[in-house]
Amino acid sequence: ETGVTQTPRHLVMGMTNKKSLKCEQHLGHNAMYWYKQSAKKPLELMFVYSLEERVENNSVPSRFSPECPNSSHLFLHLHTLQPEDSALYLCASSHADQETQYFGPGTRLLVL
Amino acid sequence: GENVEQHPSTLSVQEGDSAVIKCTYSDSASNYFPWYKQELGKGPQLIIDIRSNVGEKKDQRIAVTLNKTAKHFSLHITETQPEDSAVYFCAASKTGTASKLTFGTGTRLQVTL
Which of A25, A66, B55, B110 would be a feasible disulfide site paired with A93, CB 3.0-4.6 Å? Predict the structure, then answer.
């Protein structure tokens, strides 16, 4: 276990649904990240929060909405997704002034 | 921005043999290079990393080498075991606040008996 947990582990949703992914870290970190992992593509950084402020938004469609209420929790709110959004969504955390990131197990999302 | 290329995409070795995975990067300002191992159904796990002030780092059966001039770095696994079978990712970033890692496309390593 890396100290980063994600729920749910699997999610199936229709294109009109609204759902949220949750990430929690128990490592005392103060930076958190969302990545998208699709088959045969590099991990794509979506959002970065450092000290609870969003510092990176990699041109992600507005149907993905992150929220970081405190340094231990990170959410990704999903609405009106497309089938091409089906992927493994990974959360990671780190100290804000250090490079090493620790990943959670991911949420496998299928959009029908 | 940074671009990381990784080769090969798949690698099959016999148990006990060595495995080498290579990555190149484009941004000469990158100075932190981690390697992650991802097993089926799990997130990537950091296995070793290297910073640009050293050329080689070793941890038991795993070693990483870095050539800053050529902008490439490699992962070496010796005496491979079946439990080494996984997907391996290299990455590169600059040090600093909430660093932005750029990942390679991954290498699927299969260790056969």
Answer: A25
